Amino acid sequence: MTDDHAPASTRVGVDVGGTFTDLVTVRGGRIRVDKTPSTPAAPDEGVVTGLQGVDAPLDEVDFLGHGTTVATNAVLEGEWADTALVTTEGFRDAVEIGRQTRPDIYDFDATKPEPIVARDRRFEVPERVDERGAVLRELDEAAVRDRAADLRESGVDSVAVSLLFSFEHPAHERRVREILREEGLDASVSLSSDVLPEIREYERTLTTAMNAALKPVMDAYLGSLAGSVGDLGVDAPLRVMGSNGGLMASDAARERPVNTLLSGPAAGVRGATHVAGRRGVDDLITMDMGGTSCDVSLVRDGDPIVTTDTEVGDYPVSVPTVDIHTVGAGGGSVGYVDTGGALRVGPRSAGAQPGPVCYNRGGTEPTVTDAHLVLGRIDPSSFLPDALARDDDRVRDAFAPLAEAVAGDPEATETAARGLLDVANANMRRALRVVSVERGYDPREFALVAFGGAGPLHATALADALDIPEVIVPRAAGVLSALGLLISDVVYDYSTSMVRRFEDVDPEALRDAFAAFESEGRAELRDAGRADDELAFERTLDLRYAGQSFDLSVPVEGDLDAEELARVEARFHGAHERRYGHASPEEPVELVTVRLRARGLVEPPELAVEVRAGDPDDAIAETRRVGFGDGDRDTPVYDRSRLPTDATVDGPAVVEGSESTVVVHPGQRARVDGDANLVVETGGDGE
């Protein structure tokens, strides 16, 4: 067992964002937050710089969790390793043909994304198995050796191997890897039977190719980071946040980098889940709004919803990921009028440089943040350490074209600002409905946890519009992803497709599959420092009605016998009813995929909170004219750091913190809870 199993005296979470690298250190229950500029050209340098500023001896760090955007940026920018594909004869173009879906159904000139592996890097080998794994044609090993020579000549850095129906018969893929090594090929190899042993040829091949393309990139990054962290004196093993909302060992992340594509956002969802759970709230919707986008997700019974249907950039990735829906609405999103005369917001953003006009860093176009300034809701000097003198006239000049288009008067700045926020909120409201109403969940039964720099500015209005009764703004709202790294379990997911009629499923075959997964999970979790009494295993089956092309995951809760299989089928009908509004119990059901989640439980650190006494009125920093849906009002502005525990604030009010600002609308009430979270009871006239 490694040292990180014992109660840690110093725990550090490091989340790398596009602008800042956030660090949260917990030592003796005390939280310290640090931010350092990210270094996109060499992300590990920003991490090292941040660690050097930690206010604790680095040789006493017992736990180090890391959220990374390295894999995500590589995909979005197409900066990955030179990769080849070895596949079954006749299927080299499957990864390029893809599905019949089009990026834009009404665009006759729409093009599909560039394939990860160029056609001259795709190689075929003779072999064939059927859909049950029976060998129809043995692997032609001589042909594989010829392909190895071709691969050596091409000089590729990485190879993906994806053979037809390998999830039922992985032996051919494994033999291909052995032969490539025997032939001296100096390249990393990814097998689809390891990366994604599931049906759907295109998605399986694409995901395997993406993993292969990312392996050298992630291997170099994590290798360099581990060396630099070790040089600082940190002995704790590095844990990397996976897209599924669980930590994984650094070695596992280097081997399966495709599982880290939503590392940072997943950590934020885990942090929000922890904050709400301490309040006894297990059903919540999370909202992470930064400068360029807004990420929303749904948590049910204390666990984030996980999906295998995710897109990163233009590519579908079918590994388990926290179900996060992203819209291009952030604080830096630019407002404009389209060719039809309609007011639009985003997805284009002013970003960190030049940023919104009110940041006085050279921005000239009106943004969401500027709209809040016009309406008196924010003061950039309260959260920008290098803020220049405010120039409200520049902001109003930037809004003049919008005001002219919206109200016919370039001086109608407030009207244009309200319109811009209405449009931005409409975009985010649709996103919240996607993860709730469209998934069969009633948002009125959930709390909304808002974080990120801009999330708390909008959350109270959005909650009011969707009848969400409560908004929780964590005390660490600006660094919640880094905090989430400190409370997440170690999680590994295992799966294999077994497509057959459910009535024909052999319970013994399922028991064998689950037993094999559990054995593998125990080994990986023990390597990650988890003791046997800290292990938990969750079994699910993906089912569908015969003839459908989509499926739903349902849990397996008892011994795998005929009675439990009947209960599983009943759960599927119920899940189908909730998700799609109908079920057909008389229709035959198919088993698609067997899944097991292996969880190594991590004891969250105890976080000390200073109980503050006093009068809430003493926290009023100023009174400001603030615009709401029913007009402007003289509104108290509270310094969040000075609000006493259990203080209540009636709207209208603005609560300013060092990381975020909360707008409490008329008719709403905010309270500081025992964890220093700001909890807003909605029901007012939010926009």
Describe the 3D structure.
The protein is α+β, with helices and mostly antiparallel strands and 687 residues long. The protein contains 16 helices and 35 strands. Strands 13, 14, 15, 20, 23, 24, 31, 34 and 35 form a 9-stranded mixed sheet that branches. Strands 3-2-1-4-11-12 form a 6-stranded mixed sheet, sandwiched between helices. Strands 6-5-9-10 form a 4-stranded parallel sheet, sandwiched between helices. A hairpin with a 3-residue loop joins strand 1 (10-16) and strand 2 (20-27). Helix 4 (141-154) packs across helix 5, helix 10 (368-374) crosses helix 12 (413-435) and helix 11 (392-407) crosses helix 12. The radius of gyration is 26 Å and the shape is globular. Mean pLDDT is 90; it is low at 1-8. Residues 626-643 have a biased composition (Basic and acidic residues).
